[in-house]
Amino acid sequence: MPARPLLERGVMSFTVAALYRFVALPDAADLHLPLIALCEAHRLTGTLLIAREGLNGTVAGTSADIEAFLIELRHASLFGGRFERLDCKLSRAAEPPFSQLKVRLKPEIVTFDRGVTDPCTAAPEPVAPKEWNALLDRSGLLLIDARNAFEVALGSFPGAVDPGLKRFSDFRAYADGLDPAAHPIVAMYCTGGIRCEKAGAYLRARGFAEVHTLAGGILRYLEAVPEAESRWRGDCFVFDNRIALGPGLVERPDHAPESLR
């Protein structure tokens, strides 16, 4: 049977799934081609990265195809239930957010230190979006935005430190300049949560005793917290054609700087 064509602009609206899971995948190389086949079977576009430390990426398709893809990913015997606890945020797009499908086998699912830092052994403490505001009010808190500088420019939580990162791997140099004794409570956030799990694990390994992350990242916060209660200011940059999302994960491309449109 020939492969079904990818979705075309203007045919229908799209569901976008931003997903990741840190989990031991010693057989990542064996899962690479079956993962491509699964995406193609459901006409998905976007990018997925698979490595020995887990799975990460964003894919788009019809609502039905995304739902079927997630069910198979979480429950198919091929994956052995290792993606059952997959972190996934769903949003909508009026136009195709990606032009093609890319599924890559990589050393890491988020580039940091070639897998030296393992979030599964020194994981930071996740904080639910509806509990995040209370954490922000704690005395002595060091709040860190773990995203790149151009993302921070679009929006952030007031009071957050911008490390000025050009790339995520630069976080190690920033963290190495911090004194664990001077920062007893650290909270971090990023777009979807994956970078904070890596960065938070790095801080834990360096002796920071209490490290919290925003569970599900900014995307889940914007989805779960009513705008009237939200501490977020600005928009959230996303790595697809939508450019930026606001409260309720509504597209906000007109709010992005001209250079990013």
- The first-level CATH class of the largest domain is given as Alpha Beta
Level of helix content? 10-25%
Strand/helix succession = EHEEHEEEHEHEHEHEHEEE
The rounded Rg comes to 18 Å
Which CATH-level-2 architecture of the largest domain?
3-Layer(aba) Sandwich
List keywords for this structure.
single chain, 261 residues, alpha/beta, Alpha-Beta Plaits, Oxidized Rhodanese, domain 1, 2 domains, five-stranded mixed beta sheet, four-stranded parallel beta sheet, 7 helices, 24% strand, globular
Structural commentary:
The chain has 261 residues and is an alpha/beta fold. The chain has 2 domains: 14-105, 2-Layer Sandwich (Alpha-Beta Plaits); 125-260, 3-Layer(aba) Sandwich (Oxidized Rhodanese, domain 1). The chain is built from 7 helices and 13 strands. The chain has a 5-stranded mixed beta sheet with strand order 4-1-3-2-5. It has a 4-stranded parallel beta sheet with strand order 6-10-9-7. A two-stranded antiparallel ribbon has the order 8-11. It is globular, with a radius of gyration of 18 Å. 40% of the residues are buried.
